[in-house]
Amino acid sequence: MKKLLHEAYQAFFHEFEFWSVMFFTSEYVLRSWSYGARYSAEQGGAWKGRKEYMFSFFGLVDFFATAPFYLHFLFPQTHLR
User: Fold this and answer.
1) Rounded CA separation 46/44 (Å)
2) 13: Cβ–Cβ under 8 A, 6 or more apart, which residues?
3) CB 28: neighbour CB atoms within 10 A?
4) What is the pLDDT of residues 64-77, one digit of tens each?
């Protein structure tokens, strides 16, 4: 049964995975970028806020949720899923 589902819906699953990762990647990038508005130049500047989000719990969860897709894209012989 498992093989039949994969064969029948393989294109759909790959397409769904691709667009899901693109959505979450854009959300991560936009959220990281917008955290730059939290600090003025006197308080450390925009990159202080961006680094604060990237290394926060939720920022790391977002990063590691999409990392296997990109690692598999860059190194096709790896299977991290």
Assistant:
1) 7
2) 6
3) 19
4) 999 988 988 888 88
Give 2-58 pLDDT, tens digit per residue: 678 878 888 999 999 999 999 999 999 999 999 888 888 888 888 888 899 999 999
DSSP state of 56: S
Q: What are phi and psi of 59, to 5 degrees?
A: -65, -40
Identify the CA nearest to 35 among candidates 58, 15, 17.
58
Alpha carbon distance 14, 6 (integer Å): 10
**Alpha helices for 1-81 (secondary structure H):** 2-34, 46-54, 57-74
Residues belonging to the chain: 81
- For the full predicted model, state whether its pTM sits above 0.85: no
